[in-house]
Design brief:
Keywords: Signal. This is Lipoprotein. InterPro entries: UCP028200. The chain has 279 residues and is an all-alpha fold. It has one domain. The chain is built from 12 helices and no strands. The N terminus is likely disordered.
Amino acid sequence: MVLKRLLPVCLCLLLTSCSNAFVYNQLDWLIPWYMGDYVNLTRDQKKSLKQELQPLLQWHREEELQSYLIILEGIESDLDQPVDSAVIKAWTDELLVAYTRLEERSLDLAFTLGEQMSDAQLADFMGELYEEQADLEEEYLGRTDAEFREQTFENFEDGLKSFMGKLQPEQKQLLQEAAADMHRFDEAWLQQRRKWLAQTEELLEREPGWQQRARDILDQRESHQSEEYVAANVHNEQVIYQVLAAVIDSRNDKQDRRVRKELGGFKRDLNKLIAREKS
């Protein structure tokens, strides 16, 4: 549904672009521009979306930026002590709470956009989503187990290198072992995604009460996950928490300086945005 496409846009941009104050302050045109990749918005729709975005962005600047700063400060403090999987899970849980807050606040904006679109626009939107689904199935289901493990290792390595810098051989070995321990659930995830597409298509008929049904689907999404999906996800989360803790806790002095420099950069950008909002 429109809201399911718009929410990740808002969340990803608002949560990650805080490291670049210029980008953050251009969200009122970046989000409509992104939506143009999925549906051709009219000039009036783009104008309306930018207007509707303002209360959300104002709330985010006034209330959420400070909470992100607190999370970063907590991570910095945790790095002064040994890091284990429980610490990594705590960081993740804090970010998930922030994600959920923003998701909930974005719903009305997504509903407004969904109400304004024509049937033809929504049909084009669904066509783009089904095409995306086909591309994902081709990309992921065609992988061998060896390819899955290699791509998983590369994802681990790229993510950690961006914060820690060059990894040591023993750290890469930890990532290789973790990648080998990950359970594949490509098919289960894609099946879940196809079910979501079917729900989306039904909701976009926009029968009376569709907004509340959309809220119910979001609230109940975990209860509709298959046992295979849940089991694989729980296992993989534990593997990820453990390997991230092991690699971060094994960082050398140079890597530690790099991590703290990255966190410091995020904090400076957040403080600049907070100060600008108060001025």
